[in-house]
Amino acid sequence: MNTLIILNDPPYGTERSYNGLRLAMALSKTDKAELSSSSAQTKLMPLRYKAELSSLSAQTKLIPGGCTKVTVFLMADAVVCAKRGQKTPQGFYNIELMLNSVLRKGEVLLCGACMDARGFADDEIVQDARRSTMKELAERTLAADKVLVF
Question: By percentage, how much of the chain surpasses pLDDT 90?
Answer without folding.
Answer: 71
